[in-house]
Amino acid sequence: MNEPTQAPKPMAKAFTSASILLWLRPELPRESALEYWRGPHAQRMARTPGLFEYRQHHFSAGGQGLWPNILGAEPPQPETRRIDGMQELTFAGALSPLRGAKQRRRIHQDEANVFQRTLLHLGGPGWGRWYGSGNGEKVGDRCAVLLRRKPGLHRRTFHQFVNHTLGPSLAGIPQVKELRSQVFLPWLKELWNTPGVAHANPPEDRFDASLVLGFASEEDMGAFFASPQVNGLAGELRHHCSALQAYRISRTYTYVVEGRPALPQVKPERKPSLAPLKRALPTPPARAARTAGSHPFPEARLLRLSGEAPEDVVADSEGRLVCGVKGGRILRLDPVTGKEEVLGNTGGRPLGLELLADGTVLVCDAHRGLLKLDPRTASIETLVQFVGETPLRFCSNVTAARDGTLWFTESTHRFDFEHFVGAMYEHRPSGRLFRRDPDGHVETVLEDLFFANGVTLTEDESALIFAETDGYRLSRYWLKGPKRGQTDILAGNLPGFPDNLSRSQDGKFWVALVTPRNPLLDRLGTSPGWIRKALWRVPDALQPEPAKTVWALAFDEQGRPLADLQTQRDDFYGATGAAESKGALYLASIYGNGLLQVQLPR
């Protein structure tokens, strides 16, 4: 008689980790406190050296008591003792918790701004476990489970139970898509004794382990807790645990991924590391070596602004120009009278813009995500700050369809706007294209793009055209017809670095070229990684500047070139945005403090 086939044991990776239990300050509105935690406090936490991953778990206001009462457990926690959330820290190595003393002091000083009480639970070396289901399904709902060791039970016995019995047993249940376990060292207040914050943790209230469980849906979570496998663990849990508390997690945010901060910087930060990828590039076309187009460059004049580094420019129906400058201001300039107005301030770093029919302005802000500005009130609405569980790190450009669907790009999820050159040196595709539906749902459409940048719709909205700056190409993503969902190259092996695109009008759109192709940068794609890492360590002030050229190309919607304008100027170069209005082409640049008005031939 054949023995029954046993299910394979779930694979687990061992990590050194920590969990910080958190109670928000009761005098603060809950949403305001949560916003501070995922904003300024996350910035400090994510910059801590030695982290491999950093996640925030925000507990639901009334989500305790999920686990069946199989322990004869304690009654639900009173409101004053109910935990509001947990920070999950996974370290790069066993000694990593010893790093970052200076940054920890900054975190300690900040805690009193948002937390009433915090408890750090540090695990021993390799005491944490990540279990992978191998199915690649998305996690839609999570819960956190806290376990208290039964009095008199040896710590080693409890440790073995969590990591060798409970964890593998739960990870093998079909509904579980994610499982993290952590066994705590004996709690010591001295490990996290922040001033102005309570750290009371009487022995009878202490926990000794945590679990984070992820499911595809709320229904799957319910099926898990009602499953015979969970109820079959009742005896083991009663033997090893004196208390068990399960909290529903309303949102999870991930701020450090594989050792790299995943959120945009809000103040100058040190350069992130480089992970160069070998990549062979086609030989640049002969046009890349020339410094002028096929026709003389038209008459042009510089329109000075009160701010610096406008990255994009768009024109309204009256011919007025709208751009965003360093410091966050959104300006509107009348090119005829020279009158400048401030429409609002994002408080971040505005990049790509799009004007909507109702007069509002879509703003891709490198620090704050996708925003909408109402010039009538100067109010700012955040449309997209997170995609899934990670922050939108480098929102670059956006275009709007007539039905309200928004298409926008993230140039790279590995570097901030301030460090964009690192993505060029790395030659690693990390850009993305997103769609935001009118109901607010955001979907990732394309990944692994070479510095995704400008984006526009064709006039009939049958396709989306987008630029890949480090791919030297314009691509077309089909939205309708037999090729729907497919991508093809509209114009490849361009002679320069394409940046923002103007909205297509009369079957034509403009492309701003920042600088000509750089043969050295192309060769770096196949050079040893250490060379690129050495160049990346060179201070920014010593990095090469773009060529002092002004360059813009026009194409039709089939990728055929229509115009090629290039000249050399000292007062304006490195065009990053382009917009045509009332017989003129207007160019923006992050390397100056004005817009260039180019009179187009009639």
TrEMBL record:
<keyword id="KW-0597">Phosphoprotein</keyword>
<dbReference type="Pfam" id="PF03088">
    <property type="entry name" value="Str_synth"/>
</dbReference>
<comment type="similarity">
    <text>Belongs to the strictosidine synthase family.</text>
</comment>
<feature type="region of interest" description="Disordered">
    <location>
        <begin position="266"/>
        <end position="293"/>
    </location>
</feature>
<feature type="domain" description="Strictosidine synthase conserved region">
    <location>
        <begin position="402"/>
        <end position="482"/>
    </location>
</feature>
<dbReference type="Pfam" id="PF20067">
    <property type="entry name" value="SSL_N"/>
</dbReference>
<feature type="compositionally biased region" description="Low complexity">
    <location>
        <begin position="274"/>
        <end position="292"/>
    </location>
</feature>
<dbReference type="GO" id="GO:0016787">
    <property type="term" value="F:hydrolase activity"/>
</dbReference>
<protein>
    <submittedName>
        <fullName>Sugar lactone lactonase YvrE</fullName>
    </submittedName>
</protein>
<dbReference type="InterPro" id="IPR018119">
    <property type="entry name" value="Strictosidine_synth_cons-reg"/>
</dbReference>
<dbReference type="InterPro" id="IPR011042">
    <property type="entry name" value="6-blade_b-propeller_TolB-like"/>
</dbReference>
<dbReference type="InterPro" id="IPR011008">
    <property type="entry name" value="Dimeric_a/b-barrel"/>
</dbReference>
<keyword id="KW-0325">Glycoprotein</keyword>
